[in-house]
Design a protein that fits this description.
Chain A: It holds the Pfam family Oxidored_q2. Chain A: One of its GO terms (molecular function) is quinone binding. The complex is a heterotrimer. By secondary structure, chain A is mostly helical. Chain A has helices spanning 4-23, 27-52, 56-86. The mean pLDDT of chain A is 88. In chain C, strand 1 (217-218) and strand 2 form a beta hairpin.
Chain lengths: 99, 635, 306
Amino acid sequence: MNPNAYIILSAILLCIGLFGFMVRRNALIAFMSVELMLNAANLAMVTFSHVHGGLDGQIAAFFVMVVAAAEVVVGLAIIITIFRTRQSASVDDENLLKH
Amino acid sequence: MTLLETLTPVAATGSLSIAWLLIAIPLAVAGILLVVGRAGDAWGHLLGAAAPVAAFVIALVEFVELLGAPPAERAVSVPVYTWAETADRTIEISLLVDPLSILFALLVTGVGSLIFIYSIGYMVEDPKRRRFFAFLNIFLGAMLTLVLADNYIMLFIGWEGVGLASYLLIGFWQERTSAALAAKKAFLTNKVGDLGLLCASFAMFALFGSVSFADVNAAAPDMSHGWATALGLLLLLAACGKSAQVPLQVWLLDAMEGPTPVSALIHAATMVTAGVYLVVRSQAIFTLSDEAALAVAVVGLCSIFAGAWIGCAKDDIKKVLAGSTMSQIGYMMLAAGLGPAGVAFAIFHLLTHGMFKANMFLGAGAVMHGMGDDTDMRHFGALAKGMPWVFGTFAMGYLAIIGCPFFAGYYSKDHIINAAFGRGPVFGWLAIVGAAITAFYMTRLMMMTFFGPSRHLPGVHPHRPGPVMVIPLVILAIGSIIGGLVLNGWIQGWLSDAIGAEVEPVHIFETSAIAWITLLAVACGIVLGVLIYRRPIAQETPVSRNFFVNAGRNELYANAFNEAVFMRPGQRLCDGLELTDRYVVDGAVNGGVTLAKGASGLLRLLQNGYVRTYGALMTCGAVIVGAVMILGRLA
Amino acid sequence: MIPLLTAQAVAFWVFAVLAVAAALGLVLSRKPVHSALCLAAVMVCLACLYASLDAPFLFVAQIIVYTGAVMMLFVFTMMIIGVDSVDAMVETIKGQRIAATIGAAALLVLLVLAVGHGIITEPAGLDEAVGQAGNVRSLAYLVFGRYVFAFEATAALLITAALAAMVLSHGERLRKKERQKARAARRTREYAEQGVDPAPLPNPGVYARHNSADHPALLPDGSVAEGSVVPTLAARGVVVVDRGRLVAPNIVADETIRAVKDEQHGLLPGENELRDPGPAAAIAAAADSEAASGPAEAGENEEDER
């Protein structure tokens, strides 16, 4: 089967994630969209691993998973902290750093 | 043939290899005294006074070693380290111990030790005594760096160090505006001279590729006459600044604002001698250019009369002595400008002058100390009885400076006058007239201070100085008496052994016509002084219409001249520059700022604080970059 | 040549469609919980795609790490910050939605263009790379061999992240914790000053058929104890406020008990009317009148129950 299909699926998922990040205001959903983008990238890497016949792509995907896990932990902790102080999970409320 | 420079330095051995300690000890002590703070108040002065004594002992040991060495090996190089090294030029930090520098080291440390010890007593009531000693040690270390340097760059470091230390010490009582201003004046005037030395060093570096004395002396004969004159005049400018010669003499009289031991140190041992040292050290250049040498001699002569003139008119005892210093340094410059014949005598006079001038300055300090820090001679009188020791030692210095036979100044000054006749009768006769004026104003000083009726201000009761101040005075007085006798004849040999030149025989008492005429002139000066100042002297300075008197009292209008010629136009230039700065430069800068501010105010609106907008912008950027890359590959 | 339909192709098409649909659901659903579920679905689909790409280890890791751990964290966080807060879908930033659509579409076009431009031949397959050792073992050789430093670095990163999460989510106590004595004093004071009931709040009414916390308790006089339900539930509007429904079981129970009693004591039929009306009848009467006054509320409650 042509691996291009996997890559294009990966691109589609990436763009959906990107769209979600740009459109959704809920911090959690925005964060999930980022996760979706990371997963799309993982898919691409696993596909390339399959195409090139080496395991390095899978290793990279594995590392992305680990890093994403760390990122989720810290990111969610930040969201909770912000929610505690501002009683809101909207990314638009976190706009003090403007102008 | 030139003097002093044909000796090729040999490597140091024995005690000579520790010559760096001469510089290191005073500087280390200065550092300690400044770092320990108040904790050192109790013992700082003792440590501070011990440093020059230690340095003196080292210098003495090295002097004895040089004395024992064969004449050809009396120039010793003590490498310390390589400062800067490039492909074809190297600047070494190394010391040169040779007959000339060791004499200076002895004078600086010897007279310096006595002044330091005297300062223990003189500054006893000053709360900043420890800092004073720290500055004195910086002064000493810098001066030793200057005389022991074996190249012009290191000499320049010492030269600047001396300038810094003099600034710190002249302005030591900085709470007095006059002292602060005097320190600034000395510093700025010195800078004019420093410019000369710097330019000379640059020129040497460009011409010879090296600034060490040995290389410059070796390569000097090859340079063009024009360069030699230029270098000579630049060095003369430097010497004028440091040695307070016309036209850069203005700082010397104001420098009296410092504590008296500082004045003694500046005038006798360290600072003003540096210019003479530089001219003597650079004889190789001056022998190549008659014009430069002539300029040195003329500057010397001018200074003789300028100093004497001021000395005759001033009523302030320290300023009279300052005038006399200017005048005596003038003699040394005159001698140094006379070529090989005079150089040794310049050094000779410098050494004897170091002793008797230190003696007189410290004596004047003792008088001031006893009179409640008053320096006006019109308020003195009859102190011969009040302070017998001070009077006795001061009298020895007086006899030495006027050239009384068998005293120190007699020998050195007579030699210079003799040598001046060798150059031309005008020089000789003017030198004799200078000697007569010297006798006159020094007699005036003696008469007004120590003789006649008491004119003390009410409430002033002269008290005698303590032994810590008297003992240095006595030692210096002995030096003023026998210094000439001891050095006469020997010093010429010592300084010219290197070239194996014939040393003319010198006598204990000259019987030539010139010597007799000199003596006669000096006697005339004394008699005139005694006759005039036997009469009653007013407590207040009388108003005078005499141009000469007023000029002398106003230091020959040098300050007014400087103000009119340099200060006012400088101020106007500054005003103009300030306006330019405010309206042109600031306008440009502020305009740029306004522009950037407006532009960034517009750009700022992009930063709306919404993460999602940033995400959208990033996406746009990524798309653009990706499009460029892909289209670039496709194209 | 007739394309051969392989197992891989089947898996791909099934899971690709599912993944895209779930991803769209993630982005478009209003409730975060639905989004989380959709994300979990995407991840499971991706795990299956990994399996179809000869990556069994990643298949397992994806399910364990993502759907297991990461999604769990998301759901926990969601519970902390309000599980059913509904996003207003009105866009507040002008042009953001259009820009996002254009940007995402442009990037997609670009990526597809790039993929289409890169000519990919038949995949090499992983048989050679894996060899006899098997996927997991080969990965282990790589992780603990060539990539060991990166691996150790990620270990440090994880520990740091855990610490950071603890530090960040550790709430600083602003005032001292209220102990029993202080609480008693406060309650008494509030009772004295504002008349607040010092006793603990009543429990919600619990009924066998429902076991629900959204049913308030009834006071002895038959009125509803407002304090017995959690304010959050009350604010959400899911609390039963129809008194008739609340008291109905009581009435039924009361009547049953009465009937049993009558049976045991052998009360004659018709004697019942001669007695005073009992408390249950009074309650029932009150409930009737209330039900008549608030039909709208009752309707809403019924809807809720459904």
